[in-house]
Structure formats: structure tokens, C-alpha cells
Amino acid sequence: MGRMMRLAGIAGMIVLFSCTLCLAQSNEECQECHDDPEATGENERRGEYSVYVDDEVYSNSIHGDLDCIECHEELEGVDFPHDEIETRKVECGLCHEDAVAEVSHSVHSPKFRDRAPDIPGCSDCHGVHDILAVDDPASSVSKANQPRTCAVCHADEEITERNRIVLPDVISHYAESIHSRLIRSGNTEAATCSDCHHGHEILSPLEQHSTIFKPNIPKTCGACHEDALAQYDISLHAQSLNAGNKDAPVCTDCHSEHDILKPENPAAPTHGFNVAVEVCSPCHASERLAKKYGFRWRQVKSFSESYHGLALRGGKSTVANCGSCHGVHDILPSSDPRSRINPANLQETCGACHPNATENFARGSIHFTTELAENKLTYFVRMFYIFLITVTIGFMFIHNGLDFVHRVRILYRNKYPDLLPHQRSV
Amino acid sequence: MEKVREKKTGRKGQKQRHTKRMYYLRWTRHERIQHWLLAGSFIVLVFSGFALEYPESWWAWPFITLAPAVDLRGTLHRAAATLNIALALYHLLWLIISPRGRGQFRFMILRKQDFRDMLNMLRYNLGKTTQHPRFGHFTYWEKFEYWALIWGTIIMATTGLMLWFENATLRLVPLKVIELATVIHLYEAILASLSILVWHFYFVIFSPAVYPMNFSMITGYLSREEMLEEHELELSFYENTEPIPTNEPR
Known about the structure:
The complex is a heterodimer. Chain A is mostly helical. Chain A has helices at residues 2-21, 27-34, 55-60, 68-71, 97-104, 122-126, 146-154, 157-162, 170-176, 178-184, 193-197, 217-222, 226-234, 236-242, 251-255, 275-284, 287-293, 299-305, 307-313, 322-326, 346-351, 376-415, and strands at 40-43, 47-50.
């Protein structure tokens, strides 16, 4: 027995010693087993699973120069087959500390797993042995491929429901957007998911460091849309937002979020035909907001009932919409001397369509209503007409009605001389 | 003035019936053309105008679906307005220079008797009197309508031209006046359209006396029965002179 023990001990020492000699397990050695497409492993977490690693895919990946054991640390120095060793999940954070740290406080943080069981790990987005550089067009997280990668969860009905993802249709919305269309046509500048949401540090819009936290949205969009941001920054909307008004609109309130379209597109809310109803109305026709902030909420209605509004509703594209006079990003109140609708600037603003506009354009309200307080003359003329129409047409009805009844009675009498109403037997 | 005409009908070689029937000239061909041009332009103006005020209504579809880009609605409205105004000016000229026009105009002048006629008509229809008022060449309802039309055309043409040439208007008057013109143009249009519908269409279409319609604006003539009904005084004037017997038309 003792001899046997000693022999085993020596054998073990030899094995250990030889292993230390060949400490640097080469990838070729691993591939002796893992090159087999049929090769499977089994553990509690994953059940039976393929352990096949395509050598070519791996060597073409960004990590192609790394040894297997650099990621699969726990297998370092372990002899094959490593049946006994419980393989661990690869810890990307060993090298990619920053990325892992960013993810750890994002909405994809593993700490939310109990609430959202399908929270992705690194490999769910980046792949496993096939990880490519972000700027490689074939990468799963390249600009063009990101929407597809995010869609695995964010366009999956079951997953969005199980994980209570608030917006279930973002991917299909994004696919319609000008950003998506540009990227698909080969533009590498256009925004993809991570340009607005960040790659790893994806935060809830309620977190104040989030790129999509309401006050941060102008900056997020302005990263590309510098001119629009510069114009927006001087607007009353921006001033109000910066003063702490959470109702003040930012880019996405007018342009929508994922399905952003060019204003030239008739389907865009910012298209001239839609802007009054889809962009300005939600706030400026809201009695609640108007009361809260003290603006006139009938402006959209008075526009819609004006010639401009009526012709626009009737499909005429050359008439003024809200933006034609108020501007788009740099909207300012008429009291501001820089405002397009400041009385001093109206000649120029109206003059864009009405050549040689005079100061008469400022004498009266373009948002005219028929209310007494706004314009007494118009009010009384309208009231007079309503009275006149009622009386005149009313009289006509009475006059002609009497004539009609009389004539019908004569016709009846002539047609049924013996059947006058009082002679009819019951 | 041609007032009574012999109507010769029946094709050649066909036996003509010789019942004596009288036909009285009501509207000359020239007047009928004026009327139908006016009616045509009026209908187009009403349709294309209210299509602007009520763009979402189902009946505005031709303008909304067919040609939003070329502004079919506005173009039609302005074309019809041009015809309407040209016709109004032509009518004015005709009233001044043509003997027939001057004659018709004299018949059109409102007199106290017209208001008495209206009251008597109401009393008659209410059964307060058995005496049906007797009318001359133009009944009071025709006169009222004519003058309402003149007044309406002046208002609609004035406000319409102000809105059509809004840039010229705004060189002369402040924007407030454009507001006023917009309101007047709309409400006068409502008044005019309803008047035609309730007043004119009753007397020429829906009244049991003429239904399905008074054909004189197509044929130019009224029968003796029709003359007796609406223009008894005029008829008696003619019948005191020598009436010309005519053959009954087929």
C-alpha cells in the first residue's frame, strides 16, 4: 500500500512538473478537442452545449492573437480533458474594466437580473469567439448592425413583455427613420443606437447623467446637429428648459424619438402639413399647459380657421404653417426683438411670402378670433351676420312654408273633393 | 318688345293640332344665357369656397384628393369669381345701354306695392283673406331676390377681391380689415347660399305651382296658366291688347 501511495505521489509530481514545464498551453492544444463541431460540454447552468470553436473565426476575431487561457483563466495549467474543472464565465472585465464598470451601472447591469431576467451579458451583444472591432462593418455592434443586435431583445415581444421594456417598437420605428435610411445607404455618420444611448453606459431617461435625460437631449442630438442646437439654445423653449421647466420641449418632443423623419417627408410630424396638429398642438392647444404657463391656447385653433390653416388643411403646400412665421428651432416670443414675429420684424417675416409687405401687416392679429376682446369690429359684424342670417332665412322658411301648406291643401282638395279631413270617417 | 310669340312646332308634313294656346315671352335667350352663366359661376363659387372653409368634409374630396399641388380649388374659385364679376359688369352695361335691359330694370324697381303684396300673400296663405295678390311683370319675391343678389355680389366681389389681392390690400389698409373681409366673405356666402336654397329654389323648383321646375329659364316662355298664376296684372295688360293665337307645341 505504502509503495503504491509513493508511486502515485511520484507520478502526480511528474505530471505536475511536466505541466509547469508546458505552462503556456497553446491554442493548438485546445483546438485538438475544440475543433470538433460535434464536441459538447455539460454543466448545470447551460445543460449540454457545443464547445466547438471555429479556429478560423477565432483567429480573424479581434482577440485572435490571444491565447485561450487568457480568457479561460481557470483552465490555465489544467490537463485535458478538463472534465473536473467547473468552467467559469469569461470575465471580460479583466481587460475591459471601463466597459464592465459602465455596464454595471447601466440599465443592463447584472444587478437588475431579478427584475429583468433577460439582461444581456457582454457576449450577447459582442459575440463570443467571433468578436470583431466596432469599426469592422461585420461586427455585431457596428453602426449598421447595432439595430439588429439590439433587436434580438428589443424587438422580441416575449422579452419586452417579460422584462417590462417600456417601448416595444423602437427597432421598427428606428428602421423607418432617416438615420436608419442613411446608414443603410452607406452613410457612416448617421446615428445608430449607441450614438444616442451610449454603448455600455445605457441609462434610464430618469437618470440625470443619461444621454436621454430630458435636459441632456439637445446636447445628445447637437453632437451631430450643431446648427440646430445653436439655434435651439437661444429659443424660448431652451430658456424655459434651462430654467427648470420640465414641460419645455426638447428635440424629441417635436421630431419624435426613434422614427425621426426629414421635415420634407409628408409622414413627418414636422412636415408643413402636420406641424400644427402633431408638433405644436400637444402643448399650445393644451388648456392645462396654457393655464399653467400663461400662454394663449387658442392659437392653433385660430390658425386652423384662418386662410393659412384652412388652405393647409385642404392640401395647399405653399401657405404658411406655424414654423413659417415663428421659426423652427429658434422660436422666441414676439416681445423679443430677435423674434421673427416681433412687430418690427413682421415686414420681413411676412415678406418672405407676401412681397413688399408693409407695416400694415403688423396692424391686426394673424391669429384673429371672433371674440369680443380681440377685435370689436369683427365681433359685431359677425354677430350682425348671424342675426341677419337667422332672421332672413327664418322668415323665408315661414313665408315659403305657409305658401307650400296652402298650395298642398288646394291640391288635396282638388284631388279628393269628397275626402276633406272633417268628412273622413274614422 | 316681343311679348307674345307664335310657337310653330311639329315636323314638316305632320298634322298640327290647332288648340289655341298662348305663350308669353318671359326671358330672352340673352337673359337666359346671363342667368345660366351666373348660376354656373355661383355653384362653382359656393362649392369651391365652402371646400376651403370645411376642408375635411366628404364633399370636398375632389379638391383634396385630385389636385392638392396645383390648387385646383383656389384656381376654380378665382376663375368662377372672374366670370361672376365680369357678368355683373356686363349686366350693368346691359341695363344701361340696351332698351330691353332698361325696360326690365324699370320693372325691377322696388315699390311700396311690393311690400303690400308680400303682406297680402302672407295673409292669403294664413287664410286671413281670400284675395290672392296680383303681380305684374316681376313678383315681389323676384324683386327682393334680384336686389339681394346685387347687394350680395357687391359685397362678395369687394371682399373677395381684397382677399385675392391681399398684398395690394395690405399696402392700403391694416391687417384688421383683412380679418373683417374674411368674416364678411364667409357669412355673406352662407347667407347667399341659404337664400338661393330656401328662397329661389322654392319659387322655381319646389313650389307645388311649378314643381319639378319653372321651365321658362330654359324655354324662355310661360304658358297662359303660369302667367295667370304669377303675373296676372301683366297678363291682363297683354290681353287688353291683341293676343296672337299660337298652336300648341308637341
